[in-house]
């Protein structure tokens, strides 16, 4: 798969089929993940794959509880995505959150059908600087395999329970960074159509100075790039 196709069409997939992901496919996804850059090549990460149905059922219960907590925060305006970004359209943000909640409801309601959970742990990760490139590499590699998924952090609301269920050696400093739900998607891949264009969220040399070129539409598949003004 062309790298630009992967970059432009990898999106969060919450509606997943229960079909198992073969071990060789999982191996290729994680082998790509561990090639990601990380500070000092210290590789202070651990990937824990969960495909045991009974364990997934236990996490389903925790996930629904954790998600309910997050949406209580959202209702009171304290959640991490409660407010739109500066300059963003409030109505568009509200509609986006409505759609995300709808697909998130599906994920929560069908959590027991997810074929693979991937828990990602790190030590002293400097705000995610080392682990998030590996997570994104895993999602891109999954896309190349036809596997979709979503990264979620809501289970950090129940970190102690997660650590106990998985036998995490927390005394060594391991902390859960995120969980990925992975499976073959029911939906279709496609370029995200709701992104604000580059020139609205970028500047050059000084905050709010023009970026220098307008990008009114996605550049993949490649249209002609307008000349700098």
Automatic annotation (TrEMBL):
GO molecular function annotation: oxidoreductase activity
Entries under InterPro entries matching the protein: Nitroreductase (IPR029479), Nitroreductase-like (IPR000415), Nitroreductase/BluB (IPR050627)
Keyword line: Flavoprotein, FMN, Oxidoreductase
Pfam family, one: Nitroreductase
The Nitroreductase domain, residue ranges: 10-184
Protein name (record): Nitroreductase [Catenulispora acidiphila DSM]
């Amino acid at each position: 798969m062309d790298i630009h196709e992967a970059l432009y069409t990898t999106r969060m997939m919450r509606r997943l089929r229960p079909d198992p992901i073969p071990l060789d496919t999982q191996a290729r996804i994680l082998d790509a993940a561990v090639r990601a850059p990380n500070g000092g090549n210290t590789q202070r990460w651990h990937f824990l794959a969960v495909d045991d149905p009974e364990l997934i059922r236990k996490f389903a219960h925790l996930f629904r509880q954790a998600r309910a907590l997050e949406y209580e925060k959202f209702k009171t305006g304290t959640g991490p995505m409660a407010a739109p970004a500066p300059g963003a359209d409030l109505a568009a943000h509200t509609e986006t959150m409505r759609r995300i909640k709808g697909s998130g409801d599906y994920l929560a309601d069908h959590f027991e059908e997810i074929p693979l959970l991937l828990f990602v742990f790190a030590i002293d990760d400097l705000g995610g600087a080392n682990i998030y490139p590996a997570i994104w590499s895993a999602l891109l590699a999954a896309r190349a395999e036809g596997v979709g998924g979503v990264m979620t952090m809501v289970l950090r609301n129940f970190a102690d329970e997660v650590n106990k269920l998985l036998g995490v050696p927390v005394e060594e400093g391991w902390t859960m960074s995120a969980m990925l739900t992975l499976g073959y998607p029911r939906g279709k891949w496609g370029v995200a159509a709701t992104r604000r264009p580059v020139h609205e969220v970028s500047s050059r040399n000084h905050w709010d100075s023009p970026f220098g070129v307008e990008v009114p539409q996605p550049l993949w598949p490649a249209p002609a790039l307008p000349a700098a003004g």
